[in-house]
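Newbie here. two chains, one complex. Structure please?
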Amino acid sequence: MWDLRYSRRDVLRSSIGLAGLTIPSFLQARSLGTIAPKAKSCIVIYCWGGISHYESWDPKPDAPAETRGEFSPVATQTPGIQFCEHIPLMAQHSDKLAVIRSLHHGDGGHGGAMYHNLTGHKPTGGKAKDRTNWPSLPAMIAHFRDPGVGTPRAIRMPYSMYDNGALMAGEYGGWLGPDYDPMLVPTPAGKPYGGVSRKDGRELNLQPRIERERLAERRTLLERLDHTTDNRTGYDGLGQFARMAADLLLDGAVARAYDLEREDPRIREMYGNHVGGQSMLLARRLVEAGVPVVQVCAGAGDLAGGSGDNWDTHRDHFVKMKTRLLPVFDRAVSALLADLEQRGMLEETIVAVLTDFGRTPKINKNGGRDHYPNVYSTILAGGGIRGGQVHGSSDKSGSQPATGACTPGDLHATVFKALGIDHATELRDEMGRPFRICDGEPLPLF
Amino acid sequence: MKTPLFSILACATLFGLLVVSGSGSSVHAEVSTSADALAAIDELGGSARPLSSNPSDGWEVEFHLRGNDLNDAGLARVAALDNIVSLNLRDTKITGGGLAHLKGLSQLRSLHLERTAVDDAGVAHLAGLANLEYLNLYSTNITDESLTSLAGLANLRRLYVWQTGVTDDGVARLEKQIPKLKISRGVDLSKLPTYTDETEEPKPTTALKWIATSDRADAPKSVQGVNTQVFFENASKKRVKLYWISYGNELTLYAQLEPGGTRQQNSYSRNTWLIADENDKPLGYFVVGTEVAKAVIPSQ
């Protein structure tokens, strides 16, 4: 009889896993997909709602008061680069950062903007889980990285992105199919973001005990796979296996990574006892355990009209940024950078911060800033990206790109390049239609 | 029982590797040595990948995710693979003595030894690896003596020594000897800054009005409003139940509050919270405003 303990170990041990269930597809994987990449993993940090470029990486101290805002700039580790004074820890890591100050696109709404930034393509207006949507950046990376059986291809946490109760498009596998939907896991520790964060379906069941039923189900699957060395071509057996990976999580390296109690309490403290920090810590632990790509939503899950701890600061912008949003973010991102660096992981891990758009130059009557896709900023680190540099600039008032204008597609192309993925690769959907994975061009940041 | 599936895959592995190694070289002996080593790597739980489509560019060999049981004897078999460029032995059972097997890996550019039992005597075996660019020794038993052993590695660019016995002096000396080398010391966890609590908690600025009633029908259903917080406090001598009256006028139990008990509750303005006793007999309700507020359940 099949002994499950042995079977699991054998599956995990085999460096080729069961991905190639037929010999031809296996050989194809050998000769094409397993060439050692440069950066091996990617951590995507998403600032849901749209982080203000003024109050982060592109302060405008010389602009008029109604644009400049209440905060002052602070010097960074790199001469000539200034950040907002409320990200002082990140300023100490500028030597690891490529700051991009000239991003722009034309989508003024959250849904379209998030879709554009997370997929690298203009929104098509589809529903959240439409299979005609473009895959998210993590889903696309997952397509080029097979971590082997027992390790999820892509994980996102701690919750999905909603706007006023509506689930948004852009975070899923799209036309790559459900096997590439990044697996949603909750972050098991930390003080929550204020506001609304919804729980939704397909959340990974991480209970430590395997019920009898599921054990039986898994056995059936394995037995079926045992007879799968037939003439089927392609990867049609993989769907079942991708689902089974969730079960294998329960006693593998990934399950241990998920257990934050195993982490040095001082390291946990460094990231901050907040779900924002603990999610970043978990991202590092998952990447360390072999998960190729992890996405962290750095803010409350539902924008709910900008009323909770999210970056959609239409009201009381400066109070929220100073007291709730930036301190958590600053500490968490800085801890992640320091921790990846001291473990020798930063060179092999590209960290990309993405967001919807920037915020308006003019402060509104409610003390807030509104949506602004004409120009915004973000940061990249690791994965061979040269630190201590700025790409592009916005004009004097932060209203539009002055130099080096670039798009979300260019940012994606840069991330692909770091990972050794040709951004001009053409993939076909299930109907056989060809798609070039990315329309942008890599930025000269290496 | 070993299943046919794995036998087939084992054959496929060997076949696949031979195809890849064979395509770049016509020397059969080399192919078969490499094939033996590749088979050993697979057997020991590791993985080997060619760096490019041309296998003569070298191999990347990893044991850090699967194959953590690798020991010094296993490492000897792994090191027989020709042209290893990158080797990851993180979290394996190798010791300093095992590093003697790496002496011949002249093409090695990247070596991960972090979180192993490697020591100064072991690192001395690496002194001849002239192409080494990346060396990770964090959380090993090394001291400044290891840094002295590495002084001749002119191509070394990255060295990781967090959580080891190396000192400022040792690091300064090596940085002088290899000027382009960047040594990562990491964060001193005994000297972490004291962080102030990063978020200021919302504090109640007003108190919600308690409306006593024993009739459930008196309490209005919730209406959509803006997000806020309510700080409930049970000032009565009984345990009470806290119900949210939904937008559809249904009751959802949120909590039970012991006498003196408190609860911070996320809510929306114009929402109704019904308080009942343990037997679900209504005692009264609160309607939430836009401000963060206290809601005190009075003594009956």
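Moderator note: The CA atoms of residues 147 and 174 of chain B lie 6 Å apart. Confidence is low (pLDDT under 50) at residues 1-27 of chain B. Thread marked as resolved.
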